[in-house]
């Protein structure tokens, strides 16, 4: 059996599954129940000067039958005092010395205040510190959270202040509400960060009530933009994790954003994460989901012959390239398994109106539509296979062109060598 323990910027964790700083890590009682359920670590709900929250704080986007595909919140950091939080951290560490407790911190941008909170968190027994430079609402209006994370100089400066006082590893949590996350990651590294975690939530408005015109979640008929997370944000988070990993900063990454299953965990690791953090999936299904993550990751590692999660770290990164490096001579076309086709005609409609007019349709009097791929026309865009409601009915098959690989850089330097590439259906 693979050993699931990991070491993250010097912090040893029984497994790579950590709870993200959020409501599930609001109290010592919750964190201890999470550890009993199998979580290896917890990043405490962000500690700072206690705030006042609004009532009505969350809203969500459902998709089809899936509830909370995306979750939005306008909640701030902890509303409990630092004294209570630090006391509970001490208790948790006393009872669970081998589990990881990270103190997430956010205070006003003053060197002495940061020094004070670093000292208090470490005195309480935290294994490390996570700097919340990502909260996109409320706190940012007070010059904290994303207001720091969006300005690389501030990120660097505050990380430096923290490092002046810190004896434990410092993780900088990055905001996705920027144009290029590598600037923020570089600034954190420049300031001395031992690791980065990403992503925090994405600026969002989840919807408007069509009768009252109130944005959701409505606070007496008004709202502000919130932070979006959950399964909907996973693709954005994966891309940002890959970008930071490819920046080769030499510090580890804790991947966050839309993780619900062990498969999500593996994807984050393959793109460069050493540990992962989970919030929405636990808010939705409870601490128990970690049992499946542990089983799934263990089985996957065993099946693939890997000894530990560390063996997965960054393995997919060589395949994440620039567009200009992709092979223009690689060709796939759609293939319909007629035995599985239910004759709905959706692939035809999608291809005809929304893509490349490469499917022929013959409606039958009884209502069914027969479809046939026009192979000479098909550009291999995948759309028909994506809209097809029947699993594995439309698959994409590789066409042997007999042509050697050529990428955009090679093509654009001597286009006359590849006249066939000018034909969109080549
Ligand atoms: C209600 C709520 C409160 C949150 N509070 C915090 C917080 O106090 N500090 C922080 O760093 N991140 C906070 N987050 C962000 C999460 O830690 C996490 O970065 C984000 O939700 C993405 O992960 P997920 O898709 O697994 O939810 C919060 C998220 C939610 C939904």
Summarize the structure.
This protein has 426 residues and is an alpha/beta fold.
Task: Write up what this structure looks like.
By secondary structure, the chain is α/β, with parallel strands linked by helices. It has two domains: 6-319, Aldolase class I (TIM Barrel, Alpha-Beta Barrel); 323-422, Alpha-Beta Plaits (2-Layer Sandwich), CATH 3.30.70.20. Helix content is 31%, strand content 19%. The strands form five sheets. Strands 3-4-7-8-9-10-13-14 form an eight-stranded parallel beta barrel, surrounded by eight helices. A four-stranded antiparallel sheet has the order 5-6-12-11, with no helix packed on it. A two-stranded antiparallel ribbon has the order 1-2. α1 packs parallel to α2 (82-95), α2 (82-95) runs parallel beside α3 and α8 (262-270) crosses α10. It starts with 5 loop residues before the first strand and ends in a 13-residue tail after the last helix. The mean pLDDT is 96. The chain binds flavin mononucleotide. Flavin mononucleotide is lined by residues 20-23, 45-46, 71, 73, 75, 77, 104, 132, 134-135, 173, 200-201, 229-230, 233, 256-259, 278-281.
């Amino acid at each position: 059996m693979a050993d699931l323990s990991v070491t993250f910027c010097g912090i040893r964790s029984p497994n790579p599954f950590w709870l993200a700083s959020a409501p599930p890590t609001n109290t010592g009682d919750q964190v201890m129940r999470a550890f009993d359920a199998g979580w290896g670590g917890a990043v405490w709900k962000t500690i700072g000067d206690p705030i006042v929250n609004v009532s009505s704080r969350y809203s969500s986007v459902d998709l089809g039958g899936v509830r909370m595909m995306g979750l939005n919140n306008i909640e701030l950091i902890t509303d409990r005092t630092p004294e209570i939080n630090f006391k509970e951290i001490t208790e948790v560490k006393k009872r669970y010395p081998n589990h990881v407790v990270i103190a997430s911190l956010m205070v006003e941008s003053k060197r002495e205040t940061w020094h004070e909170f670093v000292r208090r968190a470490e005195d309480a027994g935290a294994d490390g510190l996570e700097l919340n430079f990502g909260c996109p609402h409320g706190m940012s209006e007070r010059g904290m959270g994303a207001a720091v994370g969006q300005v690389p100089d501030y990120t660097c400066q505050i990380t430096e202040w923290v490092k002046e006082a810190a004896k434990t590893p410092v993780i900088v949590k990055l905001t996705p509400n920027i144009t290029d996350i590598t600037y923020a990651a570089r600034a954190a590294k420049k300031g001395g960060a031992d690791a980065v975690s990403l992503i925090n939530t994405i600026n969002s408005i989840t919807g408007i009530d069509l009768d009252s015109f109130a944005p959701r979640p409505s606070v007496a008929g008004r709202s502000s933009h919130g932070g979006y997370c959950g399964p909907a944000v996973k693709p954005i988070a994966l891309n940002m994790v890959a970008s930071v990993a490819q920046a080769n900063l030499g510090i580890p990454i804790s991947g966050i954003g839309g993780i619900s299953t062990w498969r999500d965990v593996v994807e984050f690791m393959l793109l460069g994460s050493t540990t992962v953090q989970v919030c929405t999936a636990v808010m939705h299904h409870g601490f128990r989901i970690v049992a499946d993550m542990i089983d799934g990751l263990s089985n996957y590692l065993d099946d693939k012959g890997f000894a530990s999660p560390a063996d997965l770290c960054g393995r997919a990164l060589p395949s994440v390239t620039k567009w200009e490096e992709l092979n223009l001579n690689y060709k796939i076309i759609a293939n319909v398994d007629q035995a599985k086709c239910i004759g709905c005609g959706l692939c035809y409609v999608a291809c005809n109106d929304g893509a490349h007019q490469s499917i022929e349709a013959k409606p039958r009097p009884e209502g069914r539509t027969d479809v046939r791929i026009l192979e000479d026309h098909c550009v291999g865009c995948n759309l028909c296979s994506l809209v097809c409601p029947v699993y594995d009915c439309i698959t994409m098959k590789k066409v042997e062109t007999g042509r050697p690989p050529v990428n955009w850089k090679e093509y654009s330097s001597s286009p006359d060598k590849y006249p066939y590439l000018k034909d969109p259906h080549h």
